Amino acid sequence: MAPIPAGTSRNTQRKSASATSRRESGKRLAECLTLRWDYVDLKAGLLRLPDSKTGAKEVHLGAAAAGVLSVMERINDNPWVIAGRNPGSHLTDLQPFWQRVRGRAGLKNARIHDLRHTFPSVAVSNGQSLPMIGKLLGHTQVQTTARYAQLANQPIMQAANDVSALIEEQLRQSN
Description:
This protein is mainly alpha-helical and 175 residues long. The protein has 8 helices and 3 strands.
């Protein structure tokens, strides 16, 4: 995770960690906002979620996502990873923060849900299978994963070049 600038408020740090954790793991927004510390097992690299959109599941954390969680401050008497402003509460709305982030980054049309799509798109572009990505995201249907895992143009162009080069090579060899 990129270092958070000195002087950044604790509230902004938590919101930034939530967005980063979402991007690095593909978790649903509700899974990020309602994540409790007792669901986190950094030694095993897992989040053990007792309830999600698709039921109880384990979320496997890559080193970057685990790194985000490992540096987050735990607040006494608050079980939530992304603590809210009120004692004992969790953050309930990331939209105002997201509006500021995307405005500063010049990403006018970027939605917070796009962070969930980033994870599978990078995975598929780097050769991970749809069933594997679906497992990482907690999808029960490969068709759902296919909608999330959009390929970037560069790998598509590379695949087209590779296939056409193979065909050309085979044609040369047959002559």
